[in-house]
Design a protein that fits this description.
heterodimer; A: 116 residues; alpha+beta; Arc Repressor Mutant, subunit A; B: 159 residues; Alpha-D-Glucose-1,6-Bisphosphate, Chain A, domain 4; 8-stranded antiparallel β-sheet; 4 helices; globular
């Protein structure tokens, strides 16, 4: 799969607030559908549909423990999307930092480094 | 310290970037338009930026070249539209490594009690073009830690 296709799937999955809340819950540990549905006024089948979208984006995997089906957070696709924007962010952070220093110098003051 | 806010929403061929500077608007405008000033800040420190052309007027051309220490060069060029002024600049942008993929940048500079808010809206031809631009990282690699994932989730949750 092309990297941008994967990123589109991940962003599509992250576009929904319920799915973001589910991912946040899963950072605390694996959970059953009932546990994931508990904070929402939403049926378990509706939650299951959200889980399916997350699964297709590679953001979670599901395993069986006895009779319960557990959802597990897969962080790798999130690492890819954060890295994706981070490179671009880094480019502009550094450029704007240099511009900040230049503007300070042009105004005849030392650059404000804020101790950083 | 200047803090850059970048917004790239899924499915929308656009990037919005804002940054506030502790300097009057006319000075920020000079830093964005005068070649000798531009060369001092645009791009990462390890790159040498050369302004080949920067004809800041309606229909005027601009061309910049970034060079790394290993002989790699990346050229960018485009054309200014409308009448560039301290209130704002509209220009097209094309990376010479991907000819025909042209974006349009609208920079507005807003006075904020002696400080200046710079806001750039970049409109791409397609979401794929926007995604490719971000994925290129403007030709720069970076290593990331797991902490970023936790931070991302916290931000998504807050949003």
């Amino acid at each position: 799969m092309k990297q941008t296709d994967q990123i589109s799937l991940v962003f599509g999955a992250l576009a929904d607030p319920t799915r973001r809340a589910i991912l946040s819950r899963l950072t605390e540990g694996d959970a059953t559908v009932a546990e994931l549905a508990a904070p929402f006024s939403m049926s378990q089948p509706a939650i299951s549909r959200h889980l399916k979208v997350l699964e297709q984006a590679g953001l979670l995997t599901r395993t069986r423990r006895a009779t319960a089906r557990l959802s597990h957070l897969e962080a790798e696709p999130l690492r890819e999307v954060t890295t994706w924007l981070a490179r671009y962010q880094r480019f502009w952070d550094e450029s704007h930092e240099r511009l900040d220093e230049l503007l300070a110098a042009l105004q005849g003051e030392p650059a404000d480094n804020d101790g950083s | 310290m200047a803090k850059t806010q970048i917004t790239a929403e899924p499915g929308i061929p656009q990037i919005i970037m804002t940054c506030e500077f502790d300097a009057p608007r006319d000075l920020v405008y000079r830093a964005y338009t005068e070649p000798e000033l531009l060369q001092q800040w645009l791009g990462p420190r390890e790159y040498t930026m050369t302004v080949k052309e920067n004809d800041v007027r309606d229909g005027g051309k601009w061309r910049f070249v970034h060079s790394d220490g290993e002989g790699h060069e990346h050229g960018f060029h485009g054309v200014f539209h409308g009448n560039p002024s301290p209130e704002g600049i509209v220009r097209t942008f094309e990376y010479e490594g991907a000819p025909g993929h042209v974006s349009m940048e609208t920079l507005t500079l807003t006075d904020r009690d002696g400080r200046t808010l710079a806001r750039t809206v970049t409109a791409f031809q397609a979401v794929e073009d926007r995604d490719a631009m971000i994925a290129s990282g403007m030709e720069r690699g970076v290593h990331d830690s797991d902490e970023r994932i936790t931070e991302l989730l916290a931000r998504l949750q807050a949003g």
